[in-house]
Amino acid sequence: MNNSFCLSCEKLVPSRRVERDGKVYLVKDCPKCGPTETLFSADARRWREKRELCGYRGEVEVVRLVHPQQIHPQLENQDTGDYIHIYGSPEVHMAVKPEIAGGKATIGIAVNMIPHVVAATPGLKRMIDLPAPAALMGESAYSRHI
User: Fold this and answer.
1) Does the pLDDT value for residue 109 go beyond 90?
2) How confident is the model at residue 122 (pLDDT cuts 50, 70, 90)?
């Protein structure tokens, strides 16, 4: 269960995503104003695909990132965590519990990207156009050119 702002009373209220008729809706359950529903995505299949990211080497899948409550919002109260499975020799299976909160991770990436963004050439940049996010320390972090 997530929280969203009620557009009528502007209070933080419980919300959930619901799939129906091939679409995804954001349903807000405001105790004061009652439930409201907003179209979140007109294509539920495409919305799910965006939440399950896969990386390939040639035709072989080598990385799969899945967030179960984003892909299957009906699966509440899951035993969540950040899991890493590396299939190779040797196999590595790791779990970080509870999961790293998305907001903190996003803040960390944004802060650590500041030197790269400042040093970048003018124009629109995508994440793929910049170096991978990392905790950059010391003077050398600010002297790299992109």
Assistant:
1) no
2) confident
Q: Whats the size of the chain, residue-wise?
A: 146
Q: Which two tokens stand for residue 18?
A: 């619901």
Closest CA to 127 of 145, 109, 140, 102: 109
Average pLDDT, the chain: 75
Closest of 55, 48, 58 to residue 23, by C-alpha: 48
Residues 6+ apart with CB under 8 A from 18: 24, 25, 26, 27, 37, 73, 74
144 has a pLDDT exceeding 60: no
Going along the chain from its start, the domains and CATH numbers come out as: 2-43 (2.20.25), 47-96 (no CATH), 102-140 (no CATH)
Cβ-in-10-Å burial (0-12, 13-18, 19+) of 141 comes to: middle
Given a cut of 70, is residue 96 above it in pLDDT?
A: yes
Residue with token string 């109260």 = 77
| Mean per-residue pLDDT, 57-85 | 65
